[in-house]
Amino acid sequence: MAAQNDGGARPVRERILDAATAAFYRDGIRAVSADKIIASAGTTKVTFYRYFPTKDDLVAAYLDRQSELIRTAAGNLPADPCEALRTLAQVMGSEACRPGFRGCPFINAAAEYPASDHPVRAAVARHRDWFRGLVAELAGRLGAADPGLAADQLIMLRDGAMVHGYVADPRAVGAALLQAGSAVLQQHLPSARH
User: Fold this and answer.
1) Single pTM value for the model
2) CA distances (Å), 152 to each of 74, 76, 144, 146, 170, in order?
3) Taking Cα atoms as reference points, which of 158, 166, 133, 161 lies closest to residue 148?
4) H or E segment to which residue 20 belongs
5) Is the pLDDT assigned to residue 89 strictly greater than 60?
6) Residue 30 DSSP symbol
7) pLDDT tens, residue by residue, 18-63
8) If 147 and its partner were Cys, which of 50, 57, 125, 140 is the partner (CB 3.0–4.6 Å)?
9) DSSP sequence for 121-184
């Protein structure tokens, strides 16, 4: 379906997603009604439901959009796997320090939708599977004996850093994530074996 365009403004679907992105992240997904998003996007219920038949469809689209932004940014990572992982940690540390930081949108969504077979959880899983693949690939290029295990451990650190950045002092996230991530990687690299 082609996106409608109101006199040169952003297409309606994008305006709805913009409104949802701001509200879901700021207030929580379940706390934001479709009516609030409709009003904020300046559209009608009929138009809203044409693009998003259910609120769950909108939530999944919101998460997929967040994932696409992250994937696009990951396309600019340094070629060197060590520098790429360092850059990821630095970006996450910077993200945790930005005004209005409320944690990881994927972790937040998973907390609000606990049923593993829910479409929102499928969107979370798509992103996390991609991210795990990226981290495992970088760990493998560094020589990790078990890149998948290294990725799982690094992502656990990342998840903890995102939560810490929201509930505690976010200024400590970047340096702590770099130090802990380095320690985890050292345990997986052949030179660390005795």
Assistant:
1) 0.88
2) 18, 23, 12, 10, 23
3) 133
4) helix 12-27
5) yes
6) T
7) 999 999 999 999 999 999 999 999 999 999 999 999 999 999 999 9
8) 140
9) HHHHHHHHHHHHHHHHHHHHHHT-SSHHHHHHHHHHHHHHHHHHHHHS-GGGHHHHHHHHHHHH
